[in-house]
From TrEMBL, chain A:
Keywords: Signal. PROSITE patterns: TAT. InterPro entries: DUF1800 (IPR014917), TAT_signal (IPR006311). It comes from the Bacteria. Residues 1-27 form the signal peptide. This is Uncharacterized protein (DUF1800 family). It holds the Pfam family DUF1800.
From TrEMBL, chain B:
PANTHER family: BLL7424 PROTEIN, DUF1501 DOMAIN-CONTAINING PROTEIN. It holds the Pfam family DUF1501. Residues 1-35 form the signal peptide. InterPro entries: DUF1501 (IPR010869), TAT_signal (IPR006311). This is Uncharacterized protein (DUF1501 family). Keywords: Signal. The keyword tRNA-binding does not apply. It comes from Actinoplanes octamycinicus.
Length: 499, 409
């Protein structure tokens, strides 16, 4: 059977109209009622390049203009982030050096993982360096090391600090080489148990399949790469060490990388191989595609992928020129509405837009946010396999996940849970300082503040139905009691789900 | 979200695929995407328990007649005098005592020396392969999703995975399944006092399919679970206070409420025993895990009573354990495993196997040789108990086993 877009649209229009009748396809093509207003390019940029717009971030971006806002975000050191830094001091193990973790925690403790997960949520919610945090999250998911996972209890936080965050706006080649010399990666992918006599192929395989070129290698590439990488291991003390006695010498030929590999000390050859992989055209394409899936669309525009891959190679694997080109591309501008928020992004965006702040002096609120994400299957770093969380809408399209979003919105709006977060003294007044005369006006104001645009008229009516009001109803003394439900319903709207 | 049928020839997969090319670009409603109510599914309810971490079939169904077993496992081999059932070649681990009556009455069976094609020792790769179950094809769905899709079942709770908010990867794909931590946790906050569900229904009626599909599934499932909750439920058995106990209790509740359950997926983790798998006594990891598993299965069978006649439960695991025990009274990753089958149609009290033996020459890289593809075992169940003819839609290229391990309906 053949399904044309026209028949789909026509069918859909019939249902929009409320009955099964033939409806003109033209009318249907306009019926994209996720928002009530045209797309605002600044709002679109902030939905993608941050974890959710706030009135402050929108005002700043509008004042600077998109290009200057982007420039500023691409230089995070110039952005004051003292409040977030102070908050992170409450999570001392999150990014501690391995020796410090070992000194502070019992062996195989999960406390470091938990603090790291909370630190990632805290930064997403409250750092001013929002683009840096979104891109750091991208890299952490790309060079994914699941946490908790056995063996990296003392090194996972250090990997985040010294590999991911250190190179987030740097060069991928440097990040890849530092990852290959970090005990967390060598442990997670079994490289530490690889020896001359029995090379372990796990890291070699994932290095090519997941981190760089993708599925273009063959088994001989894996075997040669595994041999070449022998010697890169972890000391008894738990640190990276090159152990020449474990290195398998002899020539290798891997995806265009040929090396005699004659020396017992093969580290230089291994690093040259990693450089080769980082600069491989297939790697450029894979990274460009993944960045587009993250920031543009689930099915990315091919021309943009090609352009970004070339920029990546022309700039010696530097990431900033690629990001600048991506966010200023016409494809990006045209992609509004084409990405859906993950449960993590939905939670963080709700916290940000409601103006919820960290606990006064503890981390109980953060801990509760972390627990919510564990239940939702989207807590930072908790994806078990090494391929990282999926970043397409279909992967998160679960009925339970939908209910959890809605329940969470109401809990946050009503202040029921988590109780420890610091809330505006009067949430409704903080969101809508001047009360409109009608309930319709109130929902318009809430939606403009919370999702950036008014809702379509039918959605506004739906939101008001929970209060038994019409858009024309005059605001009355019951408005405070209705407010949490109206706020939650606006956050439940399809518009808020869009990234 | 009314459910009037429209365009029954459209599959949800087609619509989702179209929608993904541009969420805002196409105003697609999923309401149209669901087929009209098809003929009711009349096969067994299939309950799949995934034993995560690499289940040690060589402990659960111990090859007590094989001397090489005791040579390879001097510390952790299950002694002949402790097994509680079996046939002299195989013996049931003593911790399986709660299900011994089911074994004796012929409702519980095991299949041994089972494995996957293209075996790997990586948990993640092996699990992916086990749940996808279509190596060498471009299929990226889970096999339970494919099974559910082929039954044409459209009830709101036809496919359910219990224990997690995210769907089991076994159910990854286009069929309409529901993941829930538990029936009582599947709620919409505040809806008791205010018509929140109705407001959501109105807001998502015209949303793009990627957004409206989960909203609509949630809405249908909420209506169905609210009905189940309202009818009250007292289990006819006492379940253990474990995640598996809670999940199987909810599976029984769904079956007994006649909610149209076709298949349920349940995870049961923590079988990765490199250390302290231990001897066959209480307090050791394998003993205690098997006790939990057996208690939950026994309660499930008791709770269902006569209803077990149209239910088949089976266990799968991504791989087994190495034959040789290691220095930590554990066993490393290996292959060649045992599956458990429970149900009214199972020809139980028996271990089915093309047993290759455990002599060093018979092992494959230190592992029990897998002589039976786990998919062919499930294939026999699909044909005999679930009404499937060919298996290609679920397990491409696989033939069903000919053990005769289930009675044809």
């Amino acid at each position: 059977m053949t399904t044309t877009r026209r028949t789909l649209l026509a069918g859909s229009a019939a249902i929009v109209a409320g009955s099964i009748i033939e409806a003109p396809a033209v009318a249907a093509a306009k019926a994209v009622p996720t928002t009530g207003d045209p797309i605002d390019p600044i709002a679109h940029l902030l939905r993608r390049a941050t974890f959710g717009a706030t009135p402050q971030s929108l005002a700043e971006a509008r004042k600077l203009g998109a290009a200057k806002w982007l420039d500023r975000q691409l230089q995070p050191a110039t952005i004051d982030d003292a409040a977030c830094d102070r908050l992170l001091r409450r999570l001392p193990q999150a990014h501690a050096a391995p020796a410090a973790v070992r000194a502070a925690l019992p062996k195989h403790s999960y406390d470091g993982f938990r603090q790291l997960g909370q630190a990632i949520i805290a930064r997403a919610a409250w750092s001013e360096r929002q683009l840096f945090e979104t891109v750091a999250g991208f890299w952490a998911n790309h060079l994914h090391i699941a946490a908790p996972s056995s063996g990296v209890w003392d090194t996972r936080g250090d990997f985040d600090a010294q590999v991911i965050r250190k190179h987030t706006f740097g060069r991928f080649a440097d990040m890849l080489k530092d990852a290959a010399r970090h005990p967390a990666m060598l442990t997670y992918l079994d490289q530490r148990s690889s020896t001359k006599a029995h090379p372990n192929e796990n890291y070699a395989r994932e290095l090519m399949e997941l981190h760089t070129v993708g599925l273009v290698y063959d088994e001989s590439d894996v075997q040669d790469a595994a041999r070449l990488l022998t010697g890169m291991t972890v000391s008894k003390a738990g640190n990276y060490v090159y152990d020449a006695s474990k290195h398998a010498t002899g020539p290798v030929d891997i995806l265009g990388f040929r090396h005699a590999n004659p020396a017992a000390d093969g580290e230089t050859a291994a690093l040259a191989f990693l450089d080769h992989l980082a600069r491989h055209p297939r790697t450029a394409e894979l990274l460009a595609r993944k960045l587009c899936v993250r920031f543009v669309a689930d099915v990315p525009p091919a021309a943009l992928v090609t352009r970004l891959a070339k920029i990546y190679l022309d700039n010696g694997t530097a990431i900033v020129p690629v990001l600048r080109a991506l966010f200023t591309s016409p494809e990006f501008a045209a992609s509004a509405g084409q990405k859906v928020r993950t449960p993590f992004e939905d939670l963080v965006a709700a916290v940000r837009v409601l103006g919820l702040q960290p606990d006064k002096d503890a981390t109980l609120g953060l801990s509760a946010l972390h627990d919510i994400l564990v239940a939702a299957g989207n807590a930072p770093l908790r994806w078990a396999p090494p391929n990282g969380f999926p970043d397409v809408a279909a992967a998160w399209a679960s009925p339970s996940a939908f209910l959890m979003r809605c329940n969470l919105h109401l809990n946050l709006a009503a202040g029921w849970y988590p109780k420890q977060l610091t809330r505006p003294a009067d949430l409704l007044t903080s969101l809508v300082p001047a009360m409109p005369a009608t309930y319709g006006g109130l929902v318009d104001a809430l939606a403009t503040r919370l999702v950036g645009t008014r809702l379509p008229a039918a959605h506004t009516a739906a939101v008001l139905s929970v209060a038994g009001k019409l858009p024309t109803s005059a605001v009355d003394k019951n408005v405070a009691g209705h407010a949490p439900y109206l706020i939650a319903l606006v956050l439940d709207s399809p518009s808020f789900q869009l990234r | 979200m009314k459910t009037e049928p429209c365009c029954p020839e459209l599959s949800r997969r087609t619509v989702l695929g179209a929608a993904l090319t541009g969420l805002a670009g196409a105003a697609l409603s999923t309401r149209m995407a669901f087929a009209a109510e098809g003929p009711a599914y009349t096969g067994d309810t299939l309950v799949v328990i995934s034993l995560r971490g690499g289940f040690d079939g060589l402990s659960a169904i111990a090859p007590i007649g094989d001397a090489a077993y005791y040579q390879a496992r001097p510390a952790i081999g299950v002694p002949k005098n402790l097994v509680i059932g079996g046939d002299g070649t195989f013996g049931l681990h003593p911790a399986l005592a709660p299900v011994l009556p089911l074994w004796t009455s012929g409702k519980l069976a095991a299949v041994h020396a089972v494995g996957q094609p293209n075996p790997t020792r990586s948990h993640f790769a092996a699990m992916e392969a086990m749940e996808n179950a279509a190596p060498g094809t471009s299929l990226r769905s889970g096999w339970l999703d494919r099974m559910l899709g082929l039954t044409g079942a459209t009830a709101p709770l036809a496919g359910v995975s219990l224990g997690h908010a995210m769907p089991a990867r076994l159910m990854l794909g286009g069929a309409d399944d529901v993941a829930m931590t538990g029936i009582d946790d599947f709620t919409l906050a505040g809806d008791g006092k205010r018509p929140i569900a109705a407001a959501l229904r109105a807001m998502y009626a015209d949303a793009p399919a990627t957004l409206s599909a989960p909203a609509r599934s949630a809405d249908r499932a909420l209506t169905a679970t609210n009905k189940i909750k309202a009818s009250g439920y007292a289990a006819a058995a006492e379940y253990p206070g474990t995640e598996l106990g809670a999940a199987l209790r909810d599976v029984a509740r769904l079956i007994k409420s006649k909610a149209g359950l076709v298949t349920a997926a349940v995870d049961c983790g923590d079988w990765d025993m490199h250390e302290g798998l231990g001897t066959a006594v209480k307090g050791q990891r394998m003993f205690d895990n098997l006790t939990d598993l057996a208690q939950a299965l026994a309660a499930f069978a008791t709770d269902l009573g006569d209803g077990l006649a149209t239910v088949t439960v089976l266990t799968i695991s991504e791989f087994g354990r190495r034959v040789q025990e290691n220095a930590s009274r554990g066993a490393d990753h290996g292959h060649g495993n045992a599956m458990l089958l429970l149900g009214g149609g199972i020809r139980g009290g028996k271990v089915y196997a093309n047993w290759p033996g455990l002599s060093p020459g018979a092992l494959v890289a230190g592992d029990l040789a897998a002589t039976t593809d786990y998919r062919s075992v499930i294939g026999e169940i699909l044909q005999k108990r679930c009404g499937f003819g060919a298996l290609d839609g679920v397990f491409p290229g696989v033939r069903p086993s000919t053990f005769g391990l289930a009675a044809a309906r």
